[in-house]
């Protein structure tokens, strides 16, 4: 029969072994450093994940395609530059330090006159082109 202290010690050992095999429970993400790792545009890179949501950084310039995300809202946060988001009934300019949430199913088209750096917050598996496909569809789940 085990005494209480040996059972507690065994549980603590198992928990420690489990935690040390996992990624650290906390992790600092430096966005400037992450943006320095790539130069291609319209190719989102995952920098963090929380629950089933991914935080992606992306460089953009010029025009994207009209698209929507039927299953989820999409959050676009501008880190640097100015983002234009066109909707069928108007547009919004989003500046550095601002963000916009595009509701699920709403058609939109993003663009930037000069390069802008964005962070996207969306569920894992969301394609950047929604269901439109085409040459602008980025490979999903690329981590940097």
Q: For the terminal residues, how far apart are their CA atoms?
A: 50 Å
Count of beta strands: 7
CATH architecture assignment of the domain at 31-123: Sandwich
Determine the number of helices (DSSP H or I, runs of at least 4 residues).
2
Specify Rg, calculated over alpha carbons: 20 Å
The helix/strand order is: HHEEEEEEE
The residue ranges in which pLDDT falls below 50 over 5 or more consecutive positions are none
Q: What portion of residues is helical?
A: 10-25%
CATH-assigned homologous superfamily of the domain at 31-123:
Jelly Rolls
CATH class of the domain at 31-123: Mainly Beta
Q: What would the CATH topology of the domain at 31-123 be?
A: Jelly Rolls
User: Which whole number gives the mean pLDDT?
Assistant: 90
Strand content range: 35-45%
Largest sheet: 7 strands, antiparallel
Principal-axes geometry comes out as globular
Structural class: alpha+beta
Can you tell me about this structure?
- The structure is a single chain.
- This protein is of the alpha+beta class.
- The chain has a domain at 31-123: Jelly Rolls (Sandwich).
- 16% of the residues lie in helices and 39% in strands.
- Strands 1, 2, 3, 4, 5, 6 and 7 form a seven-stranded antiparallel β-sheet that branches.
- Strand 1 and strand 2 form a beta hairpin.
């Amino acid at each position: 029969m085990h005494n209480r202290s040996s059972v507690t010690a065994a549980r603590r050992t198992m928990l420690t072994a489990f935690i040390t095999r996992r990624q650290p429970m906390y992790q600092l993400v430096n966005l400037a450093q992450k943006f320095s790792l790539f130069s291609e545009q319209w190719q989102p890179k995952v920098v963090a994940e929380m629950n089933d949501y991914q935080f992606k950084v992306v460089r953009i310039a010029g025009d994207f395609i009209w698209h929507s995300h039927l299953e989820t809202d999409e959050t676009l946060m501008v880190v640097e530059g100015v983002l234009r988001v066109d909707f069928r009934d108007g547009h919004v300019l989003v500046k550095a330090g601002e963000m916009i949430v595009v509701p699920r199913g709403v058609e939109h088209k993003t663009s930037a006159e000069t390069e802008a750096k964005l962070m996207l917050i969306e569920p894992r598996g969301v394609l950047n082109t929604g269901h439109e496909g085409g040459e602008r569809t980025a490979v999903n789940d690329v981590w940097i």
